[in-house]
Amino acid sequence: MPRLRQVPLAEATSDVVKNCYRLLFGERDPVAEPGTATGTPGDWWTVFANSPDALRHAAQGFAFYRDPKRKLDPVLRELGQAWAGYAAGSQFVFSQHCKSLRGLGVSEERIAALPVWQFATCYDAKERLVLAYADRLVTHRGRVPDALFTQLKAEFGDEEILELTYITCLYDMHAVMSKALRTEWDDRDDPIVEVAAPADFSARDFLDTGRNRG
After folding, report:
1. Model's pTM, two decimal places?
2. Is 199 domain-assigned?
3. Which of 57, 134, 193, 204 could be 80's S-S partner, Cβ–Cβ 3.0 to 4.6 Å?
């Protein structure tokens, strides 16, 4: 379950919340009867409904990147979004934008290769450049070498680069928030935990073993 309260339909008083619920869930109460068309529980929406202004702001971001006025190719945009989800460790963001890539006609081979794009041969030079930049934005927190940015400028206009930067960073934020609040497919325990030693293995044994190995 998400870490924040979900807002049921009966308590949705804001038009933005009611409109989002109607669009995604029809007449259902998404708390009592969860589920979206893409197969997610839909609790991202019911959690964001705690702040209608935050939900409105997020929805405006969705409208921004989907607007046909955008200069950036939608496939390149979605590669950046999907990589933001993968690099930030958000199963929700990564999964949703793999679906978006599929909807744009991207092959299963290329979608499956995303986690190892650095070694995959199915991406062209422009796509690899976008993924390299997205990786620098998310994994390296914006530390982009001049050489990479020079290549980016040679392939894309300033407006395209700004759009790519903004949308990729926006989805890095969504990935981080989804993990923190445990919404959708990010409602899972952290896999990095200590694995217990056998009951008869003491700390002294461990230190002695380490010294012997040295």
Report:
1. 0.91
2. no
3. 134
